[in-house]
Design a protein that fits this description.
Blueprint: E1 7-11, H1 18-27, E2 29-33, H2 39-46, E3 51-54, E4 70-73, H3 83-89, E5 92-94, H4 101-117, H5 119-127, E6 145-149, H6 153-164, E7 168-172, E8 184-186, H7 189-195, E9 198-201, H8 215-218, E10 226-229, H9 238-246, E11 252-255, E12 275-277, H10 286-304
Parallel strand pairs: 1-2, 1-3, 3-4, 4-5, 6-7, 6-9, 7-8, 9-10, 10-11, 11-12
Helix pairs in contact: 1-10, 4-6
């Protein structure tokens, strides 16, 4: 593919530093299309591009209308893309593995710490003139059990942090065994749900994980337990989670991801006092964004050089 007149479509939600943009300009002209925009806005801007740099906005119905031969994902997850349809259309899709391992693990623990220590709540009651004995005792993490769903790079990092807090760790994974990890208990999902004080989800979204956590699973948790999700919002049935929180079936939740994003201002989650919410920002750190921008552009350059990297639909 000639780069002389090549057009590169970049989703507007993608954060690129000037040195990243300079690399893209050497490859061709840049055309930005609106993130979270309409289908017409997507195809109107992206349809004539030779290469697409994609985050969250992609119209799978319009794959046959695309001129692009490469979709470089600005992410690790690729659930936004119909991989099979791209393959049939001759469109190569690449992603960026492992760029946000530490950042997401840190965010999961930040949510856990907020649920355990209630720092925002404490600041609020201090402003009301209240003090220590005006609220219930806080949770100590030492000796508590952390249940981890999934056991990829992020899960392993979370588990290592939990060990530093002297927590017990249970893991549920469908793809790996516990060989080489003697400090963790590898168990089925029901046992993990029933024994954990905190549960954190770090699994990919696919047909087997979509809504894998619903009311039936939430009822198996301790009434004092918390659930945390920094993976994909659709793994939890959000409506049923809200019901469980309203009924006091579980103690609370820490969520960085939601079934529909951005989170609607009318969401009941925003009215609940037992949840901690962040704006799908676990990956959004200086170090992770630098690695993400660099690697996603590496994928474009390598594809154009005939040596594609991180291809997910070979």
């Amino acid at each position: 593919m000639s780069t002389v007149s090549m057009k590169i479509g970049v989703e507007s939600t993608i954060f690129l530093q000037e040195h990243h943009l300079a690399r893209l300009r050497k490859l061709g002209s840049i055309s930005f299309y609106k993130g979270y925009g309409s289908r017409d806005e997507f195809i109107g801007k992206a349809g004539e591009c030779d290469v697409l740099l994609v985050n969250k906005t992609f119209s799978n119905d319009d794959i046959p209308r695309l001129k692009a031969k490469l979709v470089s994902l600005w992410s690790t997850g690729y659930d936004v893309i119909d991989i099979g349809s791209c393959r049939k259309q001759g469109i190569t899709v690449t992603n960026v593995p492992e760029y946000s391992t530490n950042s997401v693990a840190e965010q999961a623990f930040a949510l856990m710490m907020e649920l355990a220590k209630k720092t925002s709540f404490q600041m609020r009651i201090l402003k009301e003139g209240k003090w220590t004995f005006d609220f219930k005792p806080l949770a100590e993490l030492k000796g508590k059990t952390l249940g981890i769903i999934g056991f990829g790079n992020i899960s392993r990092k979370v588990a290592s942090i939990a060990r530093a807090f002297d927590m017990n760790v249970l893991v549920h994974t469908r793809t790996q065994k516990g060989n080489g990890h003697p400090y963790y208990g590898f168990v089925d999902l029901d046992r993990l749900l029933g024994e954990s004080d905190f549960i954190t989800i770090h699994a990919p979204l696919n047909d087997s994980t979509r809504h894998m956590i619903g009311m039936a699973q939430l009822k198996k948790m301790k009434s004092t337990a918390f659930i945390i999700n920094c993976s994909r919002g659709q793994i939890i049935d959000e409506k049923e989670l809200i019901g469980a929180l309203e009924q006091g079936i579980i103690a609370g939740a820490g969520l960085d991801v939601f079934e529909k994003e951005p989170l609607e201002r009318t969401s009941k989650l925003l009215t609940l006092g037992t949840v901690v919410l962040t704006a799908h920002s676990a990956f959004y750190t200086d170090g992770a964004l630098e690695r993400l921008g660099t690697a996603s552009i590496n994928n474009i350059e390598n594809f154009l050089a005939g040596k594609p990297t991180n291809v997910i639909n070979p």
